[in-house]
Amino acid sequence: MTGDAPQVIPDGLVTSPRRFIAGGSYVGLKTYAPNKMDVGLLLSELPCRAAGVYTTNKFVSPTVTVTRENVAAGKVRGVFVTSGIANAGVGEQGMKDIKECLQLAADHLGVEPGELGSGTTGVIGVELPMALIRGGMSTISLSDDGGGAFARAIMTTDRVPKSAAVTFTCSGGETVTIGGCTKGSGMIHPNMATMLAFLTTDAAVDAAFLDSALRNCADDTFNMVTVDGDTSTNDMVLLLANGAAGNAEIGEGSPDAEAFAAALHALCSHLSRELVKDAEGSSKIFSVRVTGAASKQDARLAARAIAASSLVKSAIHGNDPNWGRVVCAAGYSGADLDVGKVSFFINDVAIMEAGTPIPFHRESVIAIMSRDEVALTVTLGLGEHEATAWGCELTEEYVVFNSAYTT
Amino acid sequence: MTGDAPQVIPDGLVTSPRRFIAGGSYVGLKTYAPNKMDVGLLLSELPCRAAGVYTTNKFVSPTVTVTRENVAAGKVRGVFVTSGIANAGVGEQGMKDIKECLQLAADHLGVEPGELGSGTTGVIGVELPMALIRGGMSTISLSDDGGGAFARAIMTTDRVPKSAAVTFTCSGGETVTIGGCTKGSGMIHPNMATMLAFLTTDAAVDAAFLDSALRNCADDTFNMVTVDGDTSTNDMVLLLANGAAGNAEIGEGSPDAEAFAAALHALCSHLSRELVKDAEGSSKIFSVRVTGAASKQDARLAARAIAASSLVKSAIHGNDPNWGRVVCAAGYSGADLDVGKVSFFINDVAIMEAGTPIPFHRESVIAIMSRDEVALTVTLGLGEHEATAWGCELTEEYVVFNSAYTT
């Protein structure tokens, strides 16, 4: 176990961990621009353990269905991605197309289709242009510095690619790396465009711990910017572990379990924050930390409800200390709450204590709120649990953008 | 029982039923403008049965707490309202102030404070300016055509007052009238500004039936534009029945029970629609009818999720037939859903049948969507239940408005 919180390497990639290769190419699913990619491949040169967290939306893309099946079968070591078209809402053709994509990808990579997962993202209801994908698959060349191209290949309305990595030293002295990339955009929550994240590690990790570590981590990070019940047709987070670091296999309670979980958390927390920063039309983000909750679940509910409130998001945009909207959102979140015990702070300025507003210097608070990042803290005074969610401002640009997405 | 659906009288008022009087006045809680009101009183000259539906927000205004207690005690026959300040989030002072308001109102009306309910709406966290209310209460004069002034006294960012009435003939030949007024604005859902509705009737109705009729009706009307779990600190719907029509008391299974429920439904449906039409920044509304659901609850869940989706609301604003957003919202609503059975129509144009998109003439659909009212229909193909929700477009104006509500 390491003492300090792991340092995130902002220019890390999914190919930062040993023996992962990746690449991307442009085949014409999106309007052309220099450096644009719309198909990508990621592969571990060694067999992998894989874990996934998937959308709970019942209107699910066949891409997610196939990926979940393959991950459950235990052989996944690579990923095919495409962006521009979601492969959702196209009837039975969707399953046929994604199976053909995986066959094409497997042929190109020299693996079996069952060794691949897939992420597709973009417009719903349009079939994948298979002719373009058939012609373009072989143009994807993979290399051990191809993680940047892969991260570009999952972008839709994202303004920047989002990748990072983190390392830690195992008890046996081996250095382990975890890399990852993500795409989000849309409003993220409450009904985001697809959120995808692909994570790789050269750690040796047993299957059960890999799965539980990913789930716990997603609940604290990706699911705090995107709520399970509100996910899109295509959301997923995949984690591949190939053991190339040569460490003693990490499992529940093993010496390096905590360090692995902490490193994964640091990476996913960083990527989640990058997701929010890059949300459509937003140039300003805010954190909502809820402390003193009666349970972890309550803390998460309250933090997410506040971060997702359109009225709160509008107030953040306008530098408006309308704290009533914040406590109102906590009130309808479903979290246990006693009005007389709630305190609220904007950055470190107390706005409400024990249910009673504190007179504050309005201009100072407006000045604080004008910064690029605003920290809201709500203390419920009922227990010891806490959680943090991230939100972005709601802007006029968001509306303009989303009223003309397909037209 | 009447055969036809009851006709709504658009210029009806809370004072349309016999023996109800009301009035409003301006005391200075809001910025002055001609014809502006910020306090109001409503009273039945006879004793009443009363029923209420209240916010489920745990951060509840003491105004709601007191009203609920008084209604439960069975003596409520009048209402004091004020707008501009919510009387929420002000600590213990909030309870003291609303109790004093009710005492002042009771003194002015010659009744007991326990005979009054109250609705307060506006900014959270600011104390009621009691000096203004003390001085202004006696300036409210009540009359049997004062329902219009009362409806103005509950407006906040509403652009127009919203009142209506409906009548039906009882089996004994008596004409019964139900009147009502409402205010909403804000985004309504997902986290609206306060929604208030006050309903009056001269029907004789027993207490249990009055309560169940109001609850059933609210679930189908007000709660389809504003979801229970997402209500504000101050929301409420109150229904007062004074029996002045002289009809045989209406109860569960009695001859006029169905006609009463139908009339109440027609009125509340009309008022709900007016609420949505008057939402902040919106000039266009849309209905979401979900049919073929496995249960009533599923139909409501799916309809509300679609109507509340920011992406759907933005698409409506942009006349953008991005139907993927609609089925995606149905998918995360929690309603039972089988992708292969879902059909979707914009007005009467089939966009998707049994999970497969139908090629449609894009320009025609954009033309249909450019109308002031758009009808979305989703057929789940799983059962016989249906529900309709109402939504409004999400506009740039909404964001501008809500980023500067207190600044």
- Termini separation of chain A comes to 53 Å
Q: From N to C, what is the helix and strand string of chain A?
A: EEEEHEHEHHEEEHHEHEHHHEEEHEEH
Tell me the major beta sheet of chain A.
6 strands, mixed
pLDDT averaged over residues of chain A: 89
Shape of chain A: globular
Defining key terms:
homodimer; 407 residues; alpha+beta; 6-stranded mixed beta sheet; 31% helix; globular
How would you characterize the overall build of this protein?
- The structure is a homodimer of 407-residue chains.
- In chain A, helix 2 (93-109) links the parallel strand 5 and strand 6.
- In chain A, helix 5 packs parallel to helix 7 (257-277).
- Residues 187-192 of chain A have low confidence and may be disordered.
- Chain A has helices at 62-73, 93-109, 130-136, 147-152, 207-220, 222-225, 257-277, 296-308, 310-317, 323-332, 362-369, 396-402, and strands spanning 8-9, 20-25, 39-44, 49-54, 78-85, 116-123, 162-169, 175-183, 196-201, 236-241, 285-293, 343-346, 349-353, 356-357, 373-379, 385-392.
- Chain A has 407 residues and is an alpha+beta fold.
- The longest helix of chain A is centred in the middle third of the chain and has 21 residues, at 257-277.
- The first copy, chain A, has 12 helices and 16 strands.
- A 6-stranded mixed beta sheet of chain A has the order 1-7-8-9-10-4, with helices on both faces. In chain A, strands 14-13-12-15-11-16 form a 6-stranded mixed beta sheet. Chain A has a 4-stranded mixed beta sheet with strand order 2-3-5-6.
- The N and C termini of chain A lie far apart (53 Å).
- At the A-B interface, helix 9, helix 10, strand 14 and helix 12 of A face helix 8, helix 9, strand 14 and helix 11 of B.
